[in-house]
Design brief:
Distance between the termini: 93 Å
Order of helices and strands: HHEEHHHEHHEEHHH
Number of helices: 10
Shape: elongated
Strand content: 5-15%
Strand order of the largest sheet: 3-5-4
Radius of gyration: 31 Å
Largest sheet: 3 strands, antiparallel
Structural class: mainly alpha
Length: 265
């Protein structure tokens, strides 16, 4: 309980009060130890948000009771536990604020009005006063590394636009998969008490699984394509008249059985 209170930024007595009022579900117990998890923390954040919107504790208790008794209310699923799982980011990207000078340090003369317009259109950057904010430290570093290797920034951005289209399609595939086999299978309209927590935890576990599948498939695809491109490049740049492999030695065979000039034993 102390760890939960610290994570939520509220006193322990407040958590205990919410627990007594049944505003948060009971913890999982192992002997004398009570374990709270991310679902409890999400519930505390939800309660705090509802209080800020002017709801009373009594009204919040009624919402929770209505949900746990199986009655459906518009938006209650998002308010009471699923909100954290549904809106918690799948990405771990860190935005980067850049001055015009810092942007030039990354990309030099490639910082042109045309490239800035493309980056804004893709959503890589946003303008904040005289500065820009790049949406992702990893994308920024990767783009700068490609430019240092000699790839024009315009080509990097156009490839990024194409990648965005492909990954949006991948996201659609996983969204349909999760919706069909996890969310819809849970019969959200009539979840029994405790099922909200189970569903929220299941959604959290799916975050790294989808990333792992995409990472593995992309790595395997790059292996296949790079191998094909390398073989093609080697064939195109082979010396004229060069044989694909070493020529067999000329002259009599070293095997007496195959050399007609050598009498058989």
């Amino acid at each position: 309980m102390e760890a939960l209170a610290e994570a939520a930024g509220i006193p322990v007595r407040t958590v205990r009060f919410y627990r007594e009022r049944k505003l948060i579900p009971p913890p999982r117990r192992e002997g004398r130890i009570a374990w709270y998890n991310e679902a409890h923390l999400a519930r505390l954040h939800t309660i705090a948000a509802l209080l800020e919107r002017g709801h009373t504790l009594g009204g919040i208790a009624e919402l929770i009771g209505a949900w746990e008794n199986g009655r459906t209310l518009d938006g209650v699923a998002e308010l009471l536990g699923l909100e954290g799982a549904l809106i918690s980011p799948w990405s771990e990207e860190t935005p980067v604020r850049l001055t015009p000078e810092a942007l030039a340090d990354y990309f030099g003369e490639d910082v042109t009005p045309e490239n800035l317009t493309t980056a804004l259109d893709i959503g890589y950057i946003a303008v904040d006063g005289e500065n820009v904010v790049h949406t992702s430290r990893r994308l920024l570093d990767a783009s700068a590394a490609l430019v240092r290797e000699g790839v024009p920034l315009a080509a990097v951005l156009e490839t990024g636009r194409a990648v965005r289209i492909q990954v949006d399609a991948l996201a659609d595939l996983f969204t349909v998969l999760i919706r069909k086999h996890v969310v819809d299978a849970a019969t959200v309209d009539h979840l029994p008490p405790g099922e909200v927590t189970r569903l929220a935890e299941a959604l959290e576990r799916l975050h790294p699984l989808a990333k792992n599948v995409v990472d593995a498939e992309l790595s395997l695809a790059m292996d296949r394509r790079v191998r094909t491109e390398l073989e093609s490049w080697l064939q195109d740049h082979a010396a004229p008249g060069a044989a694909p492999g070493p020529n067999p030695p000329e002259g009599p065979s070293e095997d007496p059985a195959e050399d007609p000039a050598t009498p058989a034993p």
